[in-house]
Amino acid sequence: MADYDLTVIGGGVGGLNVASGAAQLGARVALIEKNKLGGDCLYTGCVPTKTLIHSAKIVSNIKRSKAYGLNETTVSFDFKNVVNHMRDVITKVGERDDPKRFENMGVKVIFANGRFIDPHTFEFDGHRITSRKFVIATGSRAVAIPIKGLENIKYLTNENALGLDYLPKSIIILGAGPIGLEFAQMFARFGSKVIILEKMGQVLPREDKELADTLESILKEEGIEIYTCINVDRVKQEGNLKVVVAECSGQPRTFQADEFMIAIGRAPNLEGLNLEAAGIKAEKKGILVNKYMRTTAKNIWACGDVTGQYLFTHVAEYQAGLVIPNALIPFVKRKADYRVVPWVTFTDPELGRVGLTEDEARKRYKQIKVYKYDVKDLDRAIIEGAAKGIIKIVCTTRGMILGAHVLAPQGGEIVHEFILAMKSNLGVRNISETIHVYPTLAQIVKRTTDKYYAEKIFSGWVPKFTKKLIRWFG
Ligand SMILES: Cc1cc2nc3c(=O)[nH]c(=O)nc-3n(C[C@H](O)[C@H](O)[C@H](O)COP(=O)(O)OP(=O)(O)OC[C@H]3O[C@@H](n4cnc5c(N)ncnc54)[C@H](O)[C@@H]3O)c2cc1C
Ligand SMILES: NC(=O)c1ccc[n+]([C@@H]2O[C@H](COP(=O)([O-])OP(=O)(O)OC[C@H]3O[C@@H](n4cnc5c(N)ncnc54)[C@H](O)[C@@H]3O)[C@@H](O)[C@H]2O)c1
User: Fold this and answer.
1) Are residues 361 and 416 in the same domain?
2) Which residue's alpha carbon is at the smallest distance from atom 25 of ligand 2?
3) Beta strands in 50-111 (DSSP E)
């Protein structure tokens, strides 16, 4: 008999969810982690970045005290204490990931870095364990492209940037994806001079261009320099400064700063696992899985960032929820359904998104409808001195939502109404007919969907007809 029913490799969000779920279903489970339980999200991703972003937002609000009718005031802080606060938050959130908690559930937690010997055997530190089934959830890490000179300078990624206990005076960030933008605004709000270099012609190239451009303007107003036309040629150290030699639309450009950070995407953590011995195929993006999260080896599943699909904590958790029954319960086959996958970029304003962008929808559908609302017209946003952003809904001509994009204060919370609507096949009409509380930020959802009715009622034949009715009978 095999030592375990299920062995999970990697103790981040994906792996921990699988291990606890499987143990609670009665399986004999081993969990192999090479570092600490908790993964990227807890130590070098979501939790520390959102903590720093929150502190930076408080700094920014204090700096703007006059805008709230308060006396102008200076804000004082020691960046070391800010970082210590971030570490305290990690410890608090990480209590749930205490190995003892998993041992108490019956999971055998093993701290080791091992490799497959065959599809049923895993070796670490001279030991071998056998398992009927495996789940790989080893996550991802920052990828570095071969830029000339990179090997000669000390550069930052999300990992060591979160280890800094001093605030860089100036920093160049390569890549205007979510990592680049979230770090950029956070550092800038604390007082660093920030330069963002992006190659794709817009920040957040995967997002709706109109909202991404609006966010770019907002970040520029905060003093961040952004160039979206950049081809980096090389980097070098000159004295205390890092120098980036690049070109922008054929023009040579040079940038310099104290620090250089790379945020240009992720690579799956596959090194050393000896996947071939287990018959697992992988591409550059990650391990190949089918819609049931099964790898090319029939007793091995994968979930989370290592699959290279949607690199988000909530997706890793969703995939873990598929893997548990698919791997353990005979005859159960739960398919991954990615029709409604939301995410949020935690800049201020936040950019919440679900479904198709306007461009994506135009490519897929003959006719679409787009409704927009400017946050500057929303009472609650004006009250809070945060009236910046746009909301955009992309829908079919019959009002079924294809995509929703919320660049607004708390856009990450607001977008959830659209997520539920899309998941439940509710249309703009259902939202518009729902009473929303005044004055909330959530009213922006109703205001945008109301435009669907406004278009139908206040234009075309309806007003002409009602005008006559009012004249005759009014
Ligand atoms: C800066 C940053 C900010 C982010 N912010 C957000 C956010 O706000 N919201 C969001 O949804 N997502 C966010 N993400 C993405 C999120 O962190 C990941 O999608 C999530 O952590 C993926 O979970 P996972 O379980 O697949 O991998 P991980 O959480 O990375 O866990 C993988 C685990 O496997 C271990 N491991 C690796 N190799 C081996 C091996 N060979 N043997 C044993 N163990 C191994 C690692 O040590 C790690 O503990 C952010 C990411 C970054 C980098
Ligand atoms: N709020 C969140 O949920 C959140 C936050 C951070 C990260 N994440 C996850 O982590 C993933 C990785 O984030 P990321 O920002 O590193 O990657 P990304 O792939 O999302 O963005 C990388 C950016 O770098 C640019 N780029 C690539 N090569 C470049 C080059 N040579 N020069 C200039 N620009 C270049 C790309 O065009 C892109 O805009 C995200 O896609 C997301 O899934 C999520």
Assistant:
1) yes
2) 175
3) 107-111
